Amino acid sequence: MHRYRTHTCGALRPSDIGASVRLSGWCHRIRDHGGVLFIDLRDHYGLTQCVVDADSPAFRAAEAVRSEWVIRIDGRVRQRPAGTENADLPTGAVEVYIDDLEVLGASAELPMPVFGDLDYPEETRLRYRFLDLRREKLHANIMKRGAIIDSLRRRMREGGFFEFQTPILTASSPEGARDFLVPSRLHPGKFYALPQAPQQFKQLTMIAGFDRYFQIAPCFRDEDARADRSPGEFYQLDIEMSFVTQEDVFQAVEPVLRGVFEEFADGWRVTKEFPRIPYAEAMLKYGVDKPDLRNPLIIVDVTDEFSDESVTFNAFKNVIKAGGVVRAIPAPGAGSQPRSFFDRLNDWARGEGAPGLGYIVFEEEEGGRLSGRGPIAKFVPAAVQAAIAAKAGLKAGDAVFFSAGTEAKAAGLAGKARIRIGDDLGLSDKDQFAFCWITDFPMYEWNEDEKRIDFSHNPFSMPNFEHDAFLSLDPADAATILGIKAFQYDIVCNGIELSSGAIRNHRPDVMEKAFAIAGYDRDVLEAKFGGMLNALRMGAPPHGGIAPGVDRIVMLLCHEPNIREVVLFPMNQRAEDLMMGAPSTVTPKQLRELHIRLNLPEKSA
């Protein structure tokens, strides 16, 4: 017989009744029924009920064990008494009568129990993550993560992609988030950086002629934590392709993500064809460039309606005169809501920094005409109210809310209000994974603080502009430049951005011009990105790619609101590993070997 087990704790079935078996695992739960002990024994594979009574030579040893002790038991498999079966367990028809018991690993008093679903403070859970990971839900999340990554790999290979590994120690990047720096012992005063992403390496792989690359890539960024972003490190499905258009990237990536989500959807629907939504349209209709399409509400612009001379609501008219806009958020069926519903939304808007959230509730008059009531209805003539209702697709019994301000502020508040109203009215169809592509991001934007043109998003994207015309652009022609779109795209699911991607700027002359427009001369470009420019000058194919976040994919498929619930050993929000004590101090000897002298900030009194 094997030293520790003949079966796992999830293996025994009625066909094993009568067999002598050996199991090892953790004491998940112990129940004392007056001379009879029931021990639920757990391992990675499942749980088996084990029974010992005073007639067993193992009874005295069994009385000593406690929760989470690791034990080995020998015994006979028998059928559970009628009425005590557990249909929720694969092993629920049988139990093991214990003949012998050995303690393999006793446990100290637990800072948090493994049995049960009680919530515990994050600090406790992270400090004792190895205990937290024994709990059923979190353990299942981590196993599901592995299965999802296996599926991603298989689907990428089936799509003709090849897996490569790129360096972890590389050069510091002057763009993007803060780097994690690694001092060099052999080169005093110089540092490696952990890669924020394998961006330059995957482009160089294309320039080297490998055509289709992917990698489950670790990425390192010294940035703050969020619910959907781990501090310090994360993983992404890094993808790059040669000789492709934007549509080619969509056609390659969409089946992979759709297939993975369908495989692990647990009954939820998955978008069959991902809609393409231009950035400007997304900002208008949804108030955000990562729209949650489970919510059916569509924001509309009503600036023209409130500009009408007959409208006397000066708060909005003054916004419009100052160059601002007014957005309308429909609220179907909200007319039946009590006054408190509208008051809560107003209070919420004030909490978002807005003066409030004006609204009109539509009712039907004799003759079928709509009539509005509400705080601002008397300032808006019936004809304008009707025009607003028609534009927003509203009828009697519906309401409409308004957001006014600069285009960015009005869109931002309207986007948040859209989600809030949709949820409060129960309009969102939650049991689905609603995907979309966001396309046509602006290449440039106006930097109001510095009064100059700046890159809007990724400076290495190819401009969606005829190349010769782009090369001849006058940097002073701000109107034309600010209208240029980039071959840049995001993929979004349920309001969460899974990834940004782009067709890369593979032409050095176009890249130099793109940076010159943003105020970077050639010397700066050479100093910061000389290695990439050198490669581009030696025969670079048109190429593009994307990098969906693995952690976010798993978070969605596990229906978890926080990314720490799907990461094996996460840090806390202050980028600390409470379990291992990182970051930690190092010895003076280690610092001397690295030629480093600390210059710590003075502690405040």
UniProtKB/TrEMBL annotation:
Record-listed ATP binding positions: R221, D222, E223, E497, G549, V550, D551, R552
InterPro entries attached to this UniProt entry: Aa-tRNA-synt_II, aa-tRNA-synth_II, aa-tRNA-synth_II/BPL/LPL, Asp-tRNA-ligase_1, Asp-tRNA-ligase_1_N, Asp/Asn-tRNA-synth_IIb, AspRS_core, GAD-like_sf
Positions of region (Aspartate): 199-202
Residue stretches making up the Aminoacyl-transfer RNA synthetases class-II family profile domain: 148-570
Localization: Cytoplasm
Site (Important for tRNA non-discrimination): H33, G83
Keywords for this protein: Aminoacyl-tRNA synthetase, ATP-binding, Cytoplasm, Ligase, Nucleotide-binding, Protein biosynthesis
Record GO terms (molecular function): ligase activity
Reaction catalysed by this enzyme: tRNA(Asx) + L-aspartate + ATP = L-aspartyl-tRNA(Asx) + AMP + diphosphate
Family of the protein in this entry: Belongs to the class-II aminoacyl-tRNA synthetase family. Type 1 subfamily.
Family matches, as PANTHER family: ASPARTATE--TRNA LIGASE, MITOCHONDRIAL, ASPARTYL/LYSYL-TRNA SYNTHETASE
UniProt-recorded name of the protein: Aspartate--tRNA(Asp/Asn) ligase
